[in-house]
Amino acid sequence: MQMGKNLERRYINTAIELRDDDAAPVISGYAARFNELSEELYGFKEIILPGAFRDALQATDIRALFNHDPSQIVARTKNNTLRVWEDDYGLRYEFTPNMKTTAGRDLVELIRRGEVDQSSFSFSMEGGKEEWDDSRDMPLRRIIKVARLYDVSPVTYPAYPSTSVGVRSAKEVFEEHIRKLEERGVDPGDVSDKLAPEAEPWEEDSQRQARLKILRRKAELLFKKEVI
Please, which residues bridge with residue 83 across strands? Predict the structure, then answer.
């Protein structure tokens, strides 16, 4: 499965389970949780609705990777070593890692020691469905339908999505939302103003816009600090 240019990644702070069956160790956990409000991404928050992965789960192949590294593939649905499904709480996965590989053995040991205990997933919304609520103090993105699910990954260190080539950052998601508002004739300032403090009575519009620009710049610097 070739990853699209609009690939996104999200991380979840839930425990990964490891059980030692007679045949081989089994790793399981949640890659996403429904109806849980995310941390601030880049001027917005996000929530995934139940059923969002229903169509994406019909894909012919989904991988389990260690740290989203395609060179460290540990299981896949194509050969029935990985199962990914929705339950009442979110997107759940379970897989049997290949213990004949260094990646498989290392992952099991790191989970056993508690050094890897969080999960992530890669997805694309191109052809999916989302809604934005700009009436809140901070815009909310509701993910209704994920178009494609590429992988689920136990990860060493969750962070904001990367801005590297081929990975769509939260900043780009928000900027696209602003662009679509402009196409509909909506003033993005009506949304951006919610990210800034209330104007002082003495403050002229030009001064307020300058202050807002500074706040945006601070947000960008904070974002860059988180992803480096």
Answer: 94
What's the confidence (pLDDT) of residue 29? 92
Q: Residue 126 and residue 146: Cα distance in Å, rounded?
A: 8
φ and ψ at residue 110, rounded to 5 degrees? -65, -40
Triad 115, 34, 26: Cα angle to 5°: 40
Q: How far apart are CA 176 and CA 102, in angstroms?
A: 40
| CA dist 29 → 17, 110, 163 (Å) | 6, 15, 26
Is the pLDDT confidence value at 21 over 50?
Answer: yes
The structure tokens 């989970």 sit at: 111
CB atoms within 10 A of CB 138: 14
Question: Between helices 205-227 and 170-183, what is the axis angle to 10°?
Answer: 150
CA distance 75 to 31: 15
* Domain range summary for the chain, segments of one domain joined by +: 7-178
pTM assigned to the model:
0.73
SS3 117: coil
Residue 137: how many other CB atoms lie within 10 Å = 8
pLDDT of residue 195: 47
Amino acid found at 84? V
Give the pair of three-digit tokens for residue 5.
Answer: 């240019």
Counted residue by residue, the chain has a size of 228
In contact, 161 and 170? CB cutoff 8 Å = yes
Instruction: Give the residue with greater pLDDT, 126 vs 170.
Output: 126
In the DSSP assignment, the letter for residue 111 is H
**pLDDT, tens digit, for every residue of 177-219?**
888 888 877 765 655 555 444 444 444 555 555 555 555 555 5
